[in-house]
Amino acid sequence: MRTLGLDELSALLERSPAMVQLRHRLSLVFLPEEVQTFDTVEELIAALDSPNPQPELPAIALSVDDRFIHRLPAVRCDHDPFTSDLNRILLPKIEQVQKMVLCQSQVPDWIVQNAAGDCVILFLVDGLGLSDWKRFGKSELFCEPCFVDGLTVTSQGMKRIVGEPTVAVRLAEKGYERSFGFSYWEREEEQLTDQIFFGVTEGVTKVRSFDEALEALDKLPLEGSFVLVVREGLDQLCHRYRDRPDVEATVQQLGNEFLALAQRVQERGISATLFLTADHGILWRHEHNLRLYEAGSSNVPPRYYEGFMSGNLLWRVNFLGNDYALLTYPFIRRQLKSTEWGVHGGLSFEESFVPLAKLTVP
């Protein structure tokens, strides 16, 4: 089977429908024309053989079936849609993007549906983008790309992930009636912390290090339990940080801690499902040529507006009845301070895509 680039695939589809293996279906939004997609080759063949008018759009089957190799070309496309190149089309193709990837508002359902075993653990990171995870994370941990379908800030991202009713409450209904919380989050927003851990039956333990969390975990009866761990990630490094942050070391440490959680549970002979995800990613100042959208005051959010705003470079969203407008890549509302190594809140591949990992033990 031939391997094609995206331009070659586009040229092929202009001539003929095709059976195509994609790394991810999001690659379709990069094609110059909209494409009619079929999950199976049988569905595509049925449409082509139908007496009804033929599809006007190029047609593609997102699988390969050797039974139809005599009728349709079969190719593999090696395009990776999850790169900074996505910033070119993210805003104009935003509706298609949301249909093709798992969105953050769907994560609570996804966690509850995939929860299995004696114990469920959610490792929730404050600031970890798919971009940084792909570069520095654990290659052995498969991650589902997850789109942050809203403002890329901590308060909203965390709430979307735990959901309403919260994952803790929903898992209790599924049999995980006892739940424990751990936080080494240096945040002062008590109300947000209370919302994230709402429904956790055994309270929240404040820890200063991961080893401290592991030691506490060893003493807990984990069978029939849900454990929520909230961990500082890259967010703490992009605000008010004097020296250039070591992003690589931080991401690697997060991956090591997640694997260590799984190992510790396995050593106890307990079956478990572990999840890792984050509220948002970071757009790093030193890696991108950020451009001023306006000369705002020094205290405004650099990547979004509160309230209803209109403009060709803005994505308008609503969260809990409040309107926001996110700036698209690479624009900022104001000059960044010398201690601001990164920004978030806007719409970009770096901020708006986070990893979602699932690990089962044993």
What does the model show?
The chain is α/β, with parallel strands linked by helices. It has three domains: 2-81, no CATH class; 102-283 and 348-361, Alkaline Phosphatase, subunit A, CATH 3.40.720.10; 284-343, no CATH class. The chain is built from twelve helices and 20 strands. The protein has an eight-stranded mixed beta sheet, sandwiched between helices. Strands 1-5-2-4-3 form a five-stranded parallel beta sheet. A three-stranded antiparallel beta sheet has the order 15-17-16, with no helix packed on it. A hairpin with a 2-residue loop joins strand 16 and strand 17 (322-327). Helix 5 packs across helix 11. The longest helix has 21 residues, at 247-267. The protein starts with a strand and ends with a strand. The model has no long low-confidence stretch (mean pLDDT 94).
The geometry reads as: globular
DSSP strand count: 20
Which superfamily, in CATH terms, is the homologous superfamily of the largest domain?
Answer: Alkaline Phosphatase, subunit A
Largest sheet: 8 strands, mixed
Average pLDDT? 94
Catalogue the unreliable spans. Answer: none
Helix content: 25-40%
Give the class-level CATH name of the largest domain: Alpha Beta
Compute the CA-based radius of gyration. Answer: 22 Å
CATH hierarchy: architecture of the largest domain: 3-Layer(aba) Sandwich
Structural class: alpha/beta
